[in-house]
Design goal:
Blueprint (H helix, E strand, L loop, with lengths): L17 H12 L27 E3 L2 E5 L2 E3 L3 E5 L4 E5 L2 E3 L3 E6 L7 E5 L2 E3 L8 E6 L1 E6 L2 E3 L4 E5 L3 E6 L2 E3 L3 E5 L5 E5 L2 E2 L5 E5 L6 E2 L7 H8 L7 E2 L10 E2 L13 E7 L8 E7 L1
């Protein structure tokens, strides 16, 4: 922050609505929310370290968030079973967890994320952009890149739909545990991840992944009737659930959406916000 600029601080007792007020102020003032709770600031090993809050936004009610940059905490947004979140046009960066859900049911929380950019390269390591463990989650037109472990991890008790998104340059693109879960991947670009583009980690329901672009190498393997190297499922380990990747889009013949980074200047010299959009 430049010298002479004012810093707005929201303080108050526990459960008084500080987080909701801070988010609303950030949206109206084109600002950032930085958690500085004395009991939330920890490093990975428990030592105090300013700027790495254990959880940035812990949502147990209703959260609407758009055109906002969130950065620098271990977990940026965590949605509890009683929460609901509608998040659009946001940038998530420098985190261990971007958005996570925590629930034992497939119906709640309800989380919708659209046109978000997730870049989880961070000094803490073990970055996961989307950790969806329970609830109904819809991820649309997002960019998930540079996670040093997993771009999207969909766990048990999840009803998850991921569409129109680019998932690339992560260690693992999508990791799925489909026990008591319904997982659909449709119309995405999932390729260029270093270890696997998709990996199944347990038995359960078949993951439906039709109409996706898996990149040139995997497309060539699929066209040749081969077991794709970058996809690990029941074909590789009979104890796992299957991935239905039928109807894949041929990389060379398809016309996938073009990912474009959009940078918008904020009035009065404020922080610039970066969001993502798909243009045909």
């Amino acid at each position: 922050m430049a010298s002479g600029e004012e810093l707005l601080v929201v303080v108050g007792p526990t459960a008084s609505g500080k987080t909701e007020l801070a988010v609303r102020l950030a949206e109206q003032l084109n600002g950032e929310v930085i958690s500085a709770d004395s009991v939330q600031i920890y490093s990975d090993y428990g030592d105090p370290q300013v700027g790495h809050a254990y959880d940035g936004l812990w949502v147990s009610g209703r959260l609407e968030l758009e055109n906002t940059r969130l950065s620098g905490t271990r977990a940026l947004v965590r949605v509890e079973e009683t929460g609901n979140a509608d998040i659009s046009n946001c940038l998530f960066t420098n985190f261990a967890r971007g958005i996570s859900t925590s629930s034992m049911t497939t119906t709640s929380p309800v989380v919708q994320v659209s046109k978000g950019t997730f870049n989880s390269f961070n000094t803490q390591g073990r970055g996961i952009a989307l950790l969806l463990s329970g609830g109904t989650c819809t991820i649309d037109s997002c960019v998930v890149a540079e996670s040093d472990t997993t771009g999207v991890y969909v766990s048990q008790n999840s009803n998850t739909m991921i569409s129109g998104s680019l998932i690339t340059d992560n260690e693992i693109g999508v990791q799925a545990d489909s026990y008591n879960a319904t997982i659909v991947l449709e119309g995405n670009q999932i390729y260029g991840n270093t270890e696997f583009d998709f990996i199944m980690v347990q038995g359960g329901n078949t993951v439906v992944a039709t109409g996706n672009d898996w990149g040139p190498a995997t497309t060539a393997e699929l066209n040749a009737g081969q077991n794709p190297t970058m996809i690990w499922d029941q074909e590789d380990d009979p104890s796992l659930a299957a991935l239905d990747y039928s109807g894949w889009i041929g990389f060379a013949d398809s016309n996938p959406p073009v990912t474009e980074q959009l940078t918008a200047s904020v009035a009065d010299g404020g922080t610039a916000f970066i969001s993502s959009a798909f243009v045909n």
